[in-house]
Structures are given as structure tokens and as C-alpha cells.
Amino acid sequence: MPRTEYFEIVAKSALNRVQHMGFNWSLNPYQGCFHSCVYCFARAHAKLADRDPGAGFSARVGVKANLPDLLRGELSRRGWKRETVAFGTATDPYQPIEGTYRLTRRCLEAFRDFKTPVGLITKGTMVIRDIDVLVELSRRAKTTVCFSIPTIDETVWARTEPGTPPPRQRLKVLKALVDAGIEAGVGMAPVLPGLSDSPRQLEATVAAAADSGACFVWANIVYLKPGTKEHFMEFLAREYPQLLARYRDLFPGAYAPTAVKAPVIETVGVLKGQYGVGDRRRFRAEPPPEPHQLGLAV
Predict the structure, then answer these.
(1) What pTM value is reported for the model?
(2) Given CB 3.0 to 4.6 Å as the disulfide criterion, which of 21, 117, 243, 289 pairs with 142?
(3) For the segment 246-270, what is each residue's pLDDT rounded down to a tens digit?
(4) Structural domains of the chain in order of their starting residue, each with its CATH number
């Protein structure tokens, strides 16, 4: 892992208007990501913005220090309709620098105060620090926390997500959130053909999610847009050269063919039924546990 340099950005706005994504608004407190996931789709966004989508994506992380104040101003406008905001779509809101700046926590407090529904996605375990705010928010507006856990295969995890907490640590935090009454689940994305898509690997991940009380599980195959694609192919050439030709065949463009994607999604759907994921329909907030009770550092 290279050393990460952080620099402050003066943001002009907080909420981003989104089209064709199933939600209308997104929020990202940081630019770039320490987690260094080799397949990260946000590398493509960095390329479009003339930022380094490769090593620089993790080596230089921007901090939108004024974002919570901007957000409060935007949420207080008379025209705000309390639509769902997707939180952490292009960069993880719980990467390590959040421990210093606390931007994510302050934004969650704003959403709580303005009763705005949130769908938060993360690979970070630091979310346990904010369980108190999430409980309060979930009592006022629809609140969902999705843990990105493509696989619990530790070899694949260590190579493809070098800056992230181990998958089973994420599941431990997920259980704490669900036990506190927060709707939390698992996004198995992106599944990587030839690396994390075997029936055994898919079942192990769904089973672990179910055992942790996941309220939902969904899955998707990796997609490789320019910026992400070059970085990922360099990774394959270095770590899994035997897969390089296969990926070139599968991805002449950005998306894998349906014949590759559909079986994974169908298999996960069957496994969800077998393991009873999605049966938890009601949530009752309980006093949240302290992080030290879970054996977690935040």
C-alpha cells in the first residue's frame, strides 16, 4: 500500500443530481479512496475528470471539508422533497481519514435532522462509530446500510481490496447494526469471473451474510469502463496472468455478456432463498453496543 496524501477541497455543492441509476441524488464526502480496490468503478469517473485513475486514485485523496455545512443548507431549502440520497457511491465514506474529519458522521446528523432517507454503501467498519446516529435517523426516515462484500475468500480479498477491512470484520459490524434495528445487508459486487464466481465461493458468501443477519443480499458482475479497465488489466497481468486473455475476450467493451452475468445473479437468488435472507421485515431499534464490546477499532 502506497502512502496516501490528503488535501482539502472547497466543494461548491453537496448533493449531486444523478440520472438513470434508480436514485436521484448522491453524496460523496471524499474524492479518491484509500481502499485501493483494483476494480473500483469510480476510477472511470476520475479519468473523465482528468484525475489519475491508477495509483493516484488512492495516493491522493481529496477531503470536502465544507460538505456538511453545504449539505445542511441544501436540505433546508423549501424545495427539498426529502428524496433518498445514495451515500458513498463514488468513494467510500468510511475510509480511514473519516476518523479525523468526521464528515460522514456530520452529514448523517444533517440527514437525521432533516428527516431525509439515506442508502449508504461502504466497505468500512468505522460505520460502527455512528450507530447511534443511524439508529436515530432510521427512526425518522428510511435508512439502509449496504456492506460491499464481493467475496469472503480471503486470498481474493487481500489481492483485490488491499486497503479494506477483512470481509468477516464487515459482517461483524453488519450484525451489530441489524441487532440495533438498522436495515443492513450485503452487496456482492463486483463478482470477478474466474476469481470469485465459483458456486462454492458464492454460497460461502451468502451463507456468511445470512449468518450475520443480513436483511438483503444482491450481486453483480464487475464492469470495466475506461480508467478502471486499464488499471484492472494491469493487476491481472501482474497477479493472475492466466486470466488476462479471458478478460480481454469477456470485456471488449465495459460490460460482461449476459451469459456470464445471469448465472451468477440467478445462483445468488437461489442461495438467498435457501439461507432465508430477506425474511427479516421488521426492525426495532435497541441501545447500540459500544465498539469495544465488539472488539473493533474505529
Answers:
(1) 0.91
(2) 117
(3) 999 999 999 999 999 999 999 999 9
(4) 5-280 (3.20.20.70)
